[in-house]
Amino acid sequence: MAHLRFERVRDVIDAFPSVAFELDIEPSDEGSFDFLSSLAGGGEHDKAVGFCAYLLPRREAVWWGCRSVRKFVLKGTLDEREGLRLAEDWVTEPEEDRRMAALELGMRYSSKLATTHLALAAGWSGRTFSIAGGDPIPIQPYSTARAVRAAILIAACRASQTERSEFLRGCVEDGIRIAVDGMEQG
């Protein structure tokens, strides 16, 4: 479990206080992996997706989001494919120019697209950004996780109710594998 960012549920909430309200969870000393597994096992897939997005390191979270959303955008629009491509490019090579390209696209494309949120997640993985060479604007530390969560939940809206539950369950299982094994094995 070397890839977990936070050992306990309380650690996640200490790092991201708003997650307690966003996901309606209480701080506890329960292990993060155990908590994630219990959410998934209890059918609380939406919460599990959110918790996993905060639990994974930023790059792994974006990669997980790309893997999850890709299932729905194989035949997507050009905008969807481009957002996914830029997010995956950053995951493959997390360089500043790729991060900024993803952020720029994410700020221009429709917020109704899951892949826009993936591009934003990659773009928000840094500490700051600037517009037209202006002063640096700080990026909130929770931004990547929120964007990954949004991307997966938006993608899930494309599925029927039955498929949605199965899709989210699979996403969480994949997230758990990445949390345990890392990107190379997940």
Would you give an account of this structure?
By secondary structure, the protein is mainly alpha-helical. The protein has one domain. It contains ten helices and two strands; from the N terminus they run H-H-H-H-H-H-H-H-E-E-H-H. Strands 1-2 form a two-stranded antiparallel ribbon. The radius of gyration is 16 Å and the shape is globular. The two termini are 12 Å apart. The mean pLDDT is 92.
Concise account of the structure shown:
The protein has 186 residues and is an all-alpha fold. It is 65% helix and 2% strand.
Sum up the structure in keywords.
186 residues; mainly alpha; globular
Estimate nothing, just give the exact number of structural domains. 1
Coarse shape? globular
- Sheet having the most strands: 2 strands, antiparallel
Strand order of the largest sheet: 1-2
End-to-end Cα distance, whole Å, is: 12 Å
Mean pLDDT: 92
Total DSSP helices: 10
Order of helices and strands: HHHHHHHHEEHH
Question: What amount of the residues lies in strands?
Answer: under 5%
Helix content: 55-70%
Low-confidence parts: none
Structural class: mainly alpha
What is the count of β-strands? 2
Gyration radius, in Å: 16 Å
